[in-house]
Design a protein that fits this description.
262 residues, alpha/beta, 8 helices, seven-stranded parallel sheet, Rossmann fold
């Protein structure tokens, strides 16, 4: 057993959707610092380019910024085409792009059910399906290719008031992850989901960006804090390295203990 290589992913090729901000940028930094070549994609090309410039100056991996609108089928297909034009194989796919919406149930817009599910669920399924041929090329029994989906603690607990479509979409991602993991295991591809609690991000800015609200949020977490980039890095590196090669179909809680509350 080589402990030094157990968490090594140096030289692997990865794609992180929504990699220009929030948890996506945390995931990108972890992969780059571990020596990966990482494509990041977002509608906001400037945010991806800023992250790429910052992390390329640090290395040892590299970042390539792409623009992609995964809220449409055409945008999702275009991203897959760009990746397939540039790479013959893919080791790691991190499906992180997402959106939320909140409103009292009787005021909740019908369109926001469609919008949230399109980006949070359908785009994940579409992109994964399109990139499976690249993932199949890299997977082996000892070191499978990896799919990591971003779920959420709100996919298992009703801790986010009025985020009806978001919570339902994350529950769908958890179920999708488990179902897909069974089908692609024989192709030497694992599929897991990370279910984060509160982390500093654009989606959580209304809480983590306000000191009083942040402290209130921390008080509701058993470990008494919000998540950090190191927390994302630890779980992601485990799931994408030899250390996590025997884990598939898992929904990994990363919420400071919220999921275990009675």
């Amino acid at each position: 057993m080589n402990i030094e290589n157990l968490f090594s992913i140096s030289g692997k090729v990865a794609l992180v959707t929504g990699g220009g901000s929030g948890i996506g940028s945390m995931a990108t930094e972890a992969l780059v610092r571990a020596g990966c070549k990482v494509y990041i994609a977002s509608r906001r090309l400037e945010s991806c380019e800023a992250i790429a410039e910052e992390l390329n100056a640090v290395g040892p991996g590299t970042v390539i910024a792409l623009q992609a609108d995964l809220s449409t089928a055409e945008g999702t297909e275009h991203l897959a085409e760009v990746v397939m034009e540039r790479e013959d194989a893919l080791h790691i796919l991190v499906n992180n792009s997402g959106m939320t919406w909140g409103a009292p149930f009787e005021e909740f817009p019908r369109q926001k059910w469609d919008d949230v599910f399109r980006l949070n669920v359908t785009a994940v399924a579409d992109l994964t399906r399109l990139l499976l041929p690249l993932l199949r090329k890299t997977g082996t029994a000892e070191d499978p290719a990896r799919i990591v989906n971003l779920g959420s603690v709100v996919g298992t607990r009703t801790v986010s008031n009025n985020a009806y479509s978001y919570g339902a979409s994350k529950a769908a991602i958890h179920h999708f992850t488990k179902t897909l993991s069974n089908e692609i295991a024989s192709d030497h591809i694992t599929c897991n989901a990370i279910a984060p609690g509160p982390f500093p991000s654009r989606m959580m800015a209304h809480i983590t960006g306000n000191e009083a609200r942040r402290k209130a949020a921390e008080a509701r977490v058993p470990l008494q804090r919000v998540g950090t980039p190191e927390d994302i890095a630890g779980v992601l590196l485990m799931l994408t390295s030899r250390a996590g090669s025997y884990i598939t179909g898992g929904i990994i809680p990363l919420d400071g203990g919220i999921a275990a509350l009675p």
